[in-house]
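re: ur question from yesterday

yeah so i grabbed the chain u mentioned. its 280 aa long if i counted rite. heres the sequnce exactly as i have it in my notes:
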Amino acid sequence: MGAAGALSNALIPFAPTLDAGSEDAVIPKLPSRVYARRTHAKIPFLTGTNGDKGTLFSSFTSNYTTTEIREDLINSLRPSELAQDELESIIDQVLELYPDESALGSPYGTGNETFGSSSRFKRFSSIGAFRLGSIISCGTPVLTGLPEGGDKNFQSGRKQLNRLSSDCDDGVKSWEYVFTDPQSVPFLRVRSNLTLGLGSPANRTGALELSKVMVDYWISFAVGLDPNDGKGSKRPVWEEYSVNCPTVLQLENGNTSNVADDYGEGAMDLFLDNPVAFRH
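ran it thru and got these structure tokens back, copy pasting raw so excuse formatting
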């Protein structure tokens, strides 16, 4: 009970759970297997993520050594359908693709700046893993589970959904975005677009203009299943996602535009080519 009580303070105490015993379950199989069977709903959709989703779920003060990151990744993926040595081999490949170099880590686009932490924070945030840690709440240390953010879940997850859907010859349209507008906390950078998408932007330069654009895309899609109705704010045509020419809409004040979806290709391929290992 003590452990359960401690874990109840986790930022996200519950996660989707497979129910392999029933085909009528909400999640009967891994998403990759559901798509392989072509049994998913055939409806248009919008999807996307924030440019730096991993920073919010990483401990700014932890010392993320390579050994610790490796153990965190392996532990977060067990039990696994894969043999232990096979899983460990895949994790070793992940660590090779995410070297301990500040300029390559998240928050992205910040060069060698570590914001008073270390390059290891940026590396851990970029990959995304789970570990128990502590945060300060009302002056009191609280044990918390730090969820899995970063590329392993968020970036590769959005790519998987659009790639599999676009690869199906069923005429389902999809549009993908990446929110890249920097926010007020430097070491978190681009961690959330929730307030802008709901029309309640933060009080910072350009936030209101970007919020109007986002809301108009969302409303257009909600009304006609297409974000490009041409009504409301002046905004770029959001290009449909295509496997042959994958593009995403970069949502950023003063620089909202369609860009090639070529981010982290080597690492993304590893995640997408091993869906069972990463529970995708």
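noticed a couple things. Residues 1-10, 131-147 have pLDDT under 50 and may be disordered. also Strands lie at 45-50, 131-137, 140-146, 174-179, 247-251, 257-260.
anyway ttyl
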